[in-house]
Design brief:
The chain is mainly alpha-helical. It has a single domain, classed as Tetracycline Repressor, domain 2 (Orthogonal Bundle). The chain has 9 helices and no strands. The model has no long low-confidence stretch (mean pLDDT 92). This is TetR family transcriptional regulator.
Amino acid sequence: MDAPVARNADPGRRDRIIDAALHVIATQGVAGTSHRKVAAVAGVPLGSMTYHFNGMKELLHEAFSRFAERSADQFDARMRSAHTRSEALDAVMESIVVEHSQADTVVTYELYTLAARDHAYRQVTEGWMARSRASLERHFDPRTARLLDALIEGLNIHRALDREPAGEDDIIEAIARIVRV
């Protein structure tokens, strides 16, 4: 008789925990994120946390890595859909003016804060920036791609936090100055 095969009764549990961690980070910040809160949001027993992750640092790293990967995928899809330089410029504009969710904005800034202090998170942000630049380099030279990437990030910060953020005309002017249109 063959030995019984171990089966995972809940194969999506680890992914739900990671997504729940992103939700908790967005609502409570990293400082307010705990195993107990994440387990409650994920709808899993608290013991699942230690079964799937070696600690909060591993969970946070997985969550931020997933977030950066998803964000890079979305940006890459936007840039891949551009077939001309004009469409690429429109895609850059869209990536700035599209309303980002408050949750995504908070998660982004929480990641930036961690990356400023911890090399492991800096690697996540560096990978994200490298992917963004590679997406931009489909249409622009490397230096212009680097400048556009910085412009996108900077203007998104201003659009989220400034009482009078740059309007579309100013954004178009900023992009034009960088690409020398």
